[in-house]
UniProtKB/TrEMBL annotation:
Protein name stated in the entry: Importin N-terminal domain-containing protein
Database matches in Pfam families: HEAT_EZ, IBN_N, TPR_IMB1, TPR_IPO5
InterPro entries: ARM-like (IPR011989), ARM-type_fold (IPR016024), IMB1_TNPO1-like_TPR (IPR058584), Importin-beta_N (IPR001494), Importin_beta (IPR040122), TPR_IPO4/5 (IPR057672)
Swiss-Prot/TrEMBL keywords: Cytoplasm, Nucleus, Protein transport, Repeat, Transport
Lineage start: Eukaryota, Metazoa, Ecdysozoa, Arthropoda, Hexapoda
Organism: Pieris brassicae (White butterfly)
Amino acid sequence: MEWKPEEEGLRQILTLLKESQSPDTATQRAVQQKLEELNKYPDFNNYLIYVLTKLVSEEEPTRSLSGLILKNNVKSHYNSFLPEVAEFIKRECLSAIGDPSPLIRATVGIIITTIASKGEITSWPELLPLLCQMLDSQDYNVCEGAFGALQKICEDTAELLDSDALNRPLNVMIPKFLQFFRHSSPKIRCHAIACVNFFIMSRTQALMLHIDAFIENLFFLASDEDPDVRKNVCHALVLLLEVRLDRLTPHLPNIIEYMLLRTQDAEEAVALEACEFWLSLADQSICREVLGPRLPALLPVLVRGMRYSEMDVILLRGDRDDDADEEEPDRDADIRPRFHKPRSHTIKHNVGGGDSNMSGGGDSDDEDDGGDTDSSLSDWNLRKCSAAGLDVLANVFGADLLPVLFPILKETLFHDDWVIKESGILALGAVADGCMVGMVPHLPDLVPYLVCCLSERKALVRSITCWTLSRYSHWIVSQSHDLYLRPVMTELLKRVLDNNKRVQEAACSAFATLEEEACTELVPYLGHILQTLVFAFGRYQHKNLLILYDAIGTLADSVGHHLNKPEYIGLLMPPLITKWNVLKDEDKDLFPLLECLSSVATALQSGFLPYCEPVFRRCVSLIEQTLNQNIANTQSPEQFDAPDKDFMIVALDLLSGLAEGLDGHINHLVLNSNLMQLLYQCMQDPMPEVHPVRQSSFALLGDLTKACFQHVHPYIPEFLPILGMNLNPEIISVCNNATWAIGEISIKLGPETSKYIPLVLNHLVDIINRPNTPKTLLENTAITIGRLGYVCPHDVAPVLQQFVRQWCTSLRNIRDNEEKDSAFRGICQMIQVNPGGVVADFMFFCDAVASWSHPKEDLKEMFTKILHGFKNQVGEENWRQFTDQFPMQLSARLSAMCGI
């Protein structure tokens, strides 16, 4: 019996569909509720498919909406549909795939794909053969509808289509798609390329067999009159560049010419797809060779692509001279989610020794797209892609790029049209990273020019200038303060108080980058800086306040204890504490404020004492609330939501800041709280990858160990086994902090550490010998092994030979400090217990000793004793042969330090 709808049921559903298009939210809610109720009727979905495919008298939007509701039902409840309902829906979909209306065809295609992606593609064996057969239909609508459905299926289930589970249908489908590349309809050509493109990245065998025919067809379509076809051709070539460069190489000169043309396509979507090609090509080793000769043609195209379009300028109100917008309220939608970076224990390096902290850009450098921070433009667009292209090419070509770029910069930077001038300033910032060395001779002229641009009339010029200056902050800081740092800083701080919100944001981010570069060089200007930042507190709206917190936290990190002066504290703390008191415990704005306070507490040290008690208590309370909510959610998930663990992570990190800054002064606060019990729970958080709760817990444990060990001591038997279980280098950040905490505990625990060494030593030796272990983890591991050897030399010395060489090479670049001191005392004690363990690697030990600038006297004596002991052991002649292999500098340092 064929299913037929009842008139009354049909009328009800049509009424609902019409009501659901009402703009009134109350009406929409009522409709939602009725739809939920109707889902209880088994044949409700039959009505929905019937309206979509059979009720041609109804308006298209109503029919399509019926299909979309059905699609949601398929997604949520398909497995509980009655078999006859499922069959009816499948049959109706296939019969309506050639509906005359493009909207209805597309909706039917979406339902087919949704059914297929529910794992049904295996139990609907006739689907793919039928769709492929429909491609040959003389009826355009049937062919287009089938292709639309196939494109969605290829996108959603590409892997499954290439598996044995379906007898590899691609062996038939791909040659079939290739036949349609030259179809008379652009829409069909477009579907055909799009379908094949889904299989490039996975190097699907069926496609690799036809790769030459595929490339030949792409070339045939290169100048197709349809923009969507051109866009798909460009996309295919970008993907092939990554996957089958060997097949493209003979054609590369022609492809480069083609992509140059397409990057200037009148359709922005095509130009953007083509522009991606330069990003991909920069990753290939042949880039310099094939692209070098075409830079004079390419760079003007990229810089032109960086201009704001007329539409952008309207959206950003860039054409208004009166650009004061700070009175307009921020919309929540404009505020991007922020991500907290949990604490990680790192070690300071000797300058020039490995990667010192002079990274040139700092953390606020994640906007290498020319600082478009407005969410209406935060999507990837031609401007950002062109700027990113110039950035990566600057890194490939270095100074060789500049002779081509300079004439373009001359023309754009001084242009009367502000849109062109703005694109030149963006280009100047984009090449900063790759061309720094070649730019240096020109910066004495360019930096003052940029400082002038900070007072341009157009807000968009002021904001991009902030970003570009920040890209050169490393150079600015290293020059004469009077000539560069002071004027840059003065003008940037004026822009921090600009009337335009976009300029405020750009200036605040740029200033944070400058702070990271300048560090204590900013101390003479602290009063002026703080007055400006605190004044901004009173003016900034929600979105920029979050960036201001970051600038204040970065300032505290950069100048450290120099902030601890009554007049600075008097300026800075009242507005921060006011915000702190206003924000509720569940407000996400607490994150950036807590991060900021964490840096401030660490910097102010004892200066933070008047504020520490309420801050400490609230952090403990946030941790406790999060843990309790987590327990409630685990026990009855339908009743309680899972907590946002970021509250707990940020609170743990602020407590670390307090422990580090206040040192022993935190003692009575810990004593009168349940923090240690809470910390024990946090250390066992089950999800280290997703939520770095453990990472932050171990950082706090290490800081509390240093500040008030008497409260940690009773928990050592519980804590150390957990630390030992977290020495897994696959989860680097957790492993790093656990390793550091073990070292701190061993120093305080002394010889008592002996019973815990079997829990941790083998893991640490494995980590230090692992290839490709990140530098920070290697250094922390070496220090902790050294510290274990310092407190328990007899427990660690027997395995000295297994780690001594890696140990020495890991620590040769780090600065003299307490951690290095205790670790080297440990290695010396282990060598005294087991001198044979170091014999084979003695040269590495000598090199590590020479890395000290000013060791304490008694440590210097230990070094001297070991070196002389070794010399006496091997005899004068052997010693001379041994030291003859030393580089000059090493011999000189050792003889100066140890008289040998």
